Amino acid sequence: QVQLVESGGGLVQPGGSLRLSCVASGSIFSISDMAWYRQAPGNQRELVARIAPGGSTNYADSVKGRFTISRANAKNTMYLQMNSLKPEDTADYYCNAEILPTRWSTKSHYWGQGTQVTVSS
Fold it and tell me: pLDDT digits over 41-81, tens only?
């Protein structure tokens, strides 16, 4: 079985920074795209940033220039560096990864349990 575990969330003041981590473990043959999503109360879950195995990225317009997504493929780990945080960034942040558990299986998307980010003074 596959597990994704996020960490690094917390309470931060506007203008501050946080670094989120996501570690994939379990049965993993390969990981293709990885992404960060977030969901605030009353809102739909939205894509924050996505990164391909080779390092190409895309970001939601609301976080461009402030957030940086990266990954360490050898460690099955993904990061989200969040700078210049705003109150509207407050949400539960979720790790998502497209994973092939074995060479004979089918790729599936897996989700982490989420980590809470609160931006408030």
Answer: 999 999 999 999 999 999 999 999 999 999 998 899 999 99
Question: What is the DSSP secondary-structure string of the chain?
Answer: -EEEEEE--EEE-TT--EEEEEEEEES-SEEEEEEEEEE-TTS--EEEEEE-TTS-EEE-TTTTTTEEEEEEGGGTEEEEEE-S--GGG-EEEEEEEEEESSTTS--EEEE---EEEEE--
For tokens 């460690």, name the residue. 75
Sheet with 2-7, edge to edge strand ranges? 2-7, 18-26, 77-82, 67-72
Q: How much of the chain, in percent, has pLDDT values that exceed 90? A: 97
> Is residue 79 a contact partner of residue 20, using CB atoms and an 8 Å limit?
yes
